[in-house]
Specification:
The complex is a heterodimer of chains A (586) and B (196).
Chain A lengths: L1 H9 L9 H6 L4 H31 L24 H36 L8 H20 L25 H29 L12 H33 L10 E2 L2 E2 L8 H35 L6 H14 L15 H28 L9 H18 L2 H4 L1 H7 L3 H31 L5 H27 L17 H4 L1 H29 L59
Antiparallel strand pairs in A: 1-2
Helix pairs in contact in A: 3-4, 3-5, 3-17, 4-5, 4-6, 4-7, 4-8, 4-14, 5-6, 6-7, 7-8, 7-9, 8-10, 8-11, 8-14, 9-10, 11-14, 11-15, 14-15, 15-17
Chain B lengths: L16 H30 L6 H4 L2 H26 L3 H31 L8 H28 L5 H4 L1 H31 L1
The chains are: A mainly alpha (586), B mainly alpha (196).
C-alpha cells in the first residue's frame, strides 16, 4: 500500500471547501449519501422492529395491558394499555412496509451500494451526483409520509403490507397516505437504480471488464435492473388504487360488493385479482432485491476471510443474471389460493422450481468456497458464515410453498412468516451486519470492537432462531398469521399456543443484544483502534486502494485494473493477496 | 473532481452517461404504461360489456391531437439538428415551437375532458372511463413534465450553449428522446382508447 499512501499527499485535487449544509445535509458525495442512507435506514429498521415487539406482547399475553409503554399509545389505539385489533392491524401493515421499503432495501442498496460500488469500480463518484442526492431526500420524504400516516384519523394503513383490494380501497385515510408514501419511495428507487446501472456500465476503471467486477457489484447491477423494471407496475397499481379511493373508480372493485350489509357505491366491473398480480409483479422481484446485495456482501467477506478465490465466480455471475431474469416470471406463486386456475398455477410452479436452481448454485458456490480454507473468524466472517445455513433454511422451506398442493395448506399460516423471515432476518440482515463490520474501518479509519461484535453475533443468532423456528411448528399445526390473539380461540392452535411466549421473549432479547452493537457502532468511531494501513483486511478489491477515509473524489490516482477480483493465495506471489490494481505479480 | 463521460462517449459502450440514463428511464416508463395497458386488456376481457371508444369519445379532436404531437416531435428533432449545425437562433424557434405545440395538445385535451364532465361522464361512471381518464391523465402529466424541461432549455437552461455547447446539444438529444417517447405512448393510446 506504500505507493497509494505516497500519492495521497501529492495528488489531491484542490477544490472549494464546502459549507456544512452542502457537505453533510445536501451532499452530492456518494459516500456521505451512503452514510445518510445507512443511519436513516438503521433507524427505520429499529422502529419497524419496535412495532413488532409491541405486537409480540399481544401475541404472548393476549388482552393484557402492555407494560411501560401501554399508556403512551393513546386511548384510540390501546385503551388502558390493551391493544385493540384495529391497532394490531396497523402495526402489522406498517411493520412489513417499514422493514422492506424503508429498512432493508435502503440499507442494502442505498447505503452499501452507494458507498461501496463507486469505490469498487474505481470511479470518482456516482454518474449523476445530483440525482443521487435527490434519491435520498425523496426516500426521506417517503419515510416521513409513512410515519405521519399514524396521525391520520383511523390511524395508519391497516390492510397488510400487501394492501389487497377491495379491503384496502374501503380502508381508512391512512391507506391514502400509504399510497402517497409508496409513490415517493418508488420514485427514489427509480432514480437510484438508473444511477447505479449507468455508474457501473460507464464509470468502470480502465481494465475493469465486466468479468473482473467484484461479485458485490454484479449483485447491485442485477438488483438495480429489478428495481428499475419491477417497481413501475406497482406505481401503476398505486395510481389505480388512488383513483379507486379518491375518484371512485372501480379498477379493483367487483360488481355488487356488499360490506356490513350495505351495497358499496361503486360501478363495479373491476378485478381484485388485478391488484394482486400487479403487486406481486413487484413484490416477488423485491425478494431478490432483498437477497442479492446480501449475497454480494457475503461473497466479498467469504473470499477475503478464507484467503481463497471464490469458487465458481463465472457461475455465480451467470446464476445472478438468470435469477434476476427469472424473478419476473414467478410472481403468481403467491396467489395459488386465489383460484386463478390450474393451468396458470402449473406454469408458475414450474418457473418457481426453475428459479430455485440459480439460488442453489450461488449458495453451493459459497459453501464450496469454504472448503479447505484456513479461515479468519472475525465478526464479519461469523455473520457471513451464519448467513449461509440461515438463508439455506429460508430457501429450502420455500420449496413446499412453491408447489400448489402443499402451498394450499401452508399459505397464510405462520409457516410462510417463518420461511420469509429466515431469508430476510438471519439471512439478509446478518449479511448487512457483516457488511457494517467489514467496511467500518474504511469509512471511519477505526476498527469496531471484536469482543462486543462477537457478543452481538452469538446473541442475535440464538434469538433469531428462537423467534422464527417455532413459527414452522405453529404453521404446520395450521395457525393462521395475522391473528390478533395469536390463535388463542382456535382448537388446533392449543398445542402450540405456548410457543408464542417463548418467541416473544426471544424477540425482546434480540432487542437487548442490539444495544452493544449500537454502542459499538457509535463509540468505535471515536475510541476504536486506529487502522494501521488503508487495507486492514488485506483485501484485493479497489475500495481498499483509496485513502482512509476516502476523500471527495475517492482516488488519489486514477486506478487501473490488471486482474480479477479475488486473487488470494496465488502460487508464486509474494503475499497471499494481490490487489486488482497491482500491475505485475509481487 | 470530474465525472468521466458526461459529454464524450465512452469508447467501449458507445454512449455518454445521460443517454444511457434516459434509455433506462424510458425502459421503466415502458413498464409503467405496460402495466396500465395490461390492466386495460385484463379488465376489458373480463367485462360483460365494453363500449367502443368512438361511441363515447371525440375521434376528430383526438386525430387532431395526434397530428399536433407528431408535429411537435418533428420540431423537437429540428431543434437538435439546429444545434448540431451551430444555429442557435433556429434552435430557439424550434424548441419554442415544441413547447407551444405541447400547449395546443393540452388545450384540446382540456376541451375533450370538459365535454365529458358536461355530460356527467366521470371516471367513476364505468371501468372504460376509469381507464380512459387514468391513462390520458398520466400521459398528460408526462406532456407537462416534458414541456417544463423543454421550456427550461428554451429559457434559462440555454445559457449552457455559451459555456459548453457540446454538453448542451447532448441535453437536447436526451430531452428529445423523452419527448418522442411521450409521443409514442399517445400513438398507442389513440387507437386503443378511441378506435377499438
Amino acid at each position: 500500500m506504500a505507493h497509494v499512501a505516497a500519492v495521497a499527499h501529492t495528488g489531491n485535487h484542490h477544490e472549494h471547501p464546502l459549507g456544512f449544509l452542502q457537505k453533510y445535509i445536501f451532499s452530492q458525495d456518494h459516500k456521505v449519501i451512503g452514510l445518510q442512507y445507512l443511519l436513516t435506514s438503521l433507524c427505520f429498521l429499529f422502529f419497524g422492529f419496535s412495532l413488532m415487539m409491541m405486537m409480540r406482547w399481544q401475541l404472548a399475553y393476549p388482552g393484557q395491558p402492555i407494560p411501560f409503554i401501554g399508556g403512551l399509545l393513546g386511548e384510540a389505539n390501546a385503551p388502558g394499555g390493551i391493544m385493540l385489533p384495529e391497532f394490531y392491524n396497523q402495526l402489522g401493515a406498517m411493520h412489513g412496509t417499514i422493514m422492506v421499503f424503508l429498512g432493508v432495501v435502503p440499507l442494502a442498496v442505498g447505503a452499501f451500494g452507494n458507498y461501496v460500488v463507486p469505490l469498487q469500480i474505481g470511479a470518482p463518484d456516482m454518474a449523476f451526483p445530483k440525482l443521487n442526492m435527490m434519491s435520498y431526500w425523496v426516500y426521506f420524504l417517503g419515510g416521513v409520509t409513512m410515519l405521519a400516516s399514524f396521525l391520520m384519523p383511523g390511524g395508519a394503513a391497516n390492510s397488510g403490507w400487501t394492501s389487497y383490494a377491495p379491503l384496502s380501497v374501503i380502508a381508512t385515510m391512512g391507506q391514502t397516505v400509504w399510497l402517497f408514501g409508496m409513490v415517493f419511495l418508488i420514485t427514489s428507487s427509480l432514480l437510484g437504480s438508473i444511477n447505479f446501472i449507468v455508474t457501473i456500465v460507464q464509470l468502470r476503471a480502465r481494465g475493469l471488464t465486466f468479468m473482473r467486477l467484484p461479485f458485490f457489484v454484479w449483485s447491485q447491477l442485477v438488483t438495480s435492473f429489478l428495481l428499475l423494471l419491477a417497481f413501475p407496475p406497482l406505481e401503476a397499481a398505486g395510481v389505480m388504487q388512488l383513483m379507486d379511493r379518491l375518484a371512485g373508480t372501480s379498477f379493483f372493485m367487483p360488481s355488487g360488493l356488499v360490506v356490513a350489509g350495505e351495497v358499496m357505491p361503486y360501478s363495479g366491473g373491476g378485478s381484485p385479482l388485478l391488484w394482486q398480480h400487479l403487486f406481486w409483479f413487484l413484490a416477488h422481484p423485491e425478494v431478490y432485491v432483498l437477497i442479492l446485495p446480501a449475497l454480494g456482501i457475503v461473497a466479498e467477506i467469504v473470499a477475503n476471510n478464507t484467503r481463497k478465490p471464490l469458487w465458481g465466480y463465472n457461475s455465480l455471475v451467470y446464476a445472478a443474471i438468470f435469477l434476476g431474469f427469472m424473478s419476473f416470471i414467478v410472481w403468481a406463486h403467491h396467489m395459488f389460493l386465489t383460484g386463478m386456475g390450474t393451468v396458470i398455477s402449473t406454469f408458475f410452479q414450474t418457473t418457481t422450481m426453475i428459479i430455485s436452481i440459480p439460488s442453489v448454485i450461488i449458495l453451493t458456490a459459497l459453501f464450496i468456497s469454504l472448503w479447505g480454507a484456513s479461515m479468519r473468524f472475525n465478526t464479519q466472517m461469523l455473520f457471513a458464515l451464519a448467513f449461509l445455513p440461515m438463508f439455506g433454511i429460508g430457501g429450502l422451506t420455500g420449496l413446499p410453498l412453491g408447489l400448489a398442493p402443499t402451498d394450499i395448506h401452508l399459505h397464510d399460516t405462520y409457516y410462510v412468516i417463518g420461511h420469509f423471515h429466515y431469508v430476510v432476518a438471519p439471512g439478509t440482515i446478518f449479511a448487512l451486519f457483516a457488511g457494517v463490520y467489514h467496511w467500518y474501518p474504511k469509512v471511519t479509519g477505526r476498527m469496531m470492537n471484536e469482543f462486543w461484535g462477537k457478543f452481538h453475533f452469538w446473541g442475535s443468532l440464538v434469538c433469531m432462531n428462537g423467534i422464527f423456528m417455532p413459527m414452522f411448528v405453529q404453521g404446520l399445526a395450521g395457525v393462521s398469521r395475522r391473528l390478533y390473539d395469536g390463535g388463542q380461540q382456535y382448537a388446533h392452535a392449543q398445542g402450540v399456543f405456548h410457543l408464542n411466549e417463548w418467541m416473544s421473549i426471544s424477540a425482546w432479547m434480540l432487542a437487548l443484544f442490539q444495544i452493544p452493537f449500537i454502542i459499538n457502532f457509535f463509540l468505535s468511531s471515536r475510541k476504536g483502534r486506529k487502522v494501521e494501513s488503508d487495507n486492514p483486511w488485506e483485501a484485493t478489491t479497489l475500495e481498499w486502494a483509496t485513502p482512509t477515509p476516502p476523500p471527495h473524489g475517492n482516488f488519489t490516482v486514477v486506478p487501473e485494473v490488471h486482474r480479477g477480483p479475488y486473487e488470494y493465495s496465488v502460487p508464486g506471489h509474494l503475499r497471499d493477496y494481490t490487489p486488482q490494481h497491482q500491475p505485475e505479480k509481487a | 473532481m470530474q465525472i468521466p463521460y458526461t459529454v464524450a462517449e465512452r469508447p467501449d459502450t458507445g454512449v455518454f452517461n445521460a443517454k444511457l440514463g434516459i434509455w433506462l428511464f424510458l425502459a421503466s416508463e415502458v413498464m409503467l404504461f405496460g402495466a396500465l395497458f395490461s390492466s386495460y386488456i385484463l379488465l376489458r376481457t373480463g367485462a360483460l360489456a365494453w363500449p367502443h371508444g368512438y361511441t363515447i369519445l371525440n375521434v376528430p379532436l383526438a386525430t387532431l391531437n395526434t397530428v399536433v404531437l407528431i408535429t411537435s416531435s418533428i420540431t423537437m428533432v429540428m431543434s437538435w439538428v439546429a444545434l448540431r449545425n451551430r444555429d442557435f437562433g433556429k434552435y430557439r424557434k424550434y424548441i419554442g415551437g415544441t413547447v407551444l405545440l405541447g400547449f395546443v395538445f393540452l388545450i384540446i385535451k382540456a376541451i375533450e375532458y370538459g365535454a365529458k364532465f358536461e355530460h356527467h361522464l366521470y371516471p367513476s361512471e364505468n371501468t372504460f372511463l376509469a381507464i380512459y381518464f387514468t391513462l390520458t391523465g398520466l400521459h398528460g402529466l408526462h406532456v407537462i413534465g416534458g414541456m417544463i424541461v423543454n421550456a427550461y432549455f428554451w429559457g434559462p437552461g440555454s445559457k449552457m450553449w455559451v459555456t459548453d455547447p457540446e454538453r448542451f446539444t447532448n441535453r437536447i438529444e436526451v430531452a428529445g428522446l423523452y419527448w418522442h417517447f411521450v409521443d409514442l405512448v399517445w400513438i398507442f393510446l389513440f387507437p386503443v382508447l378511441y378506435l377499438l
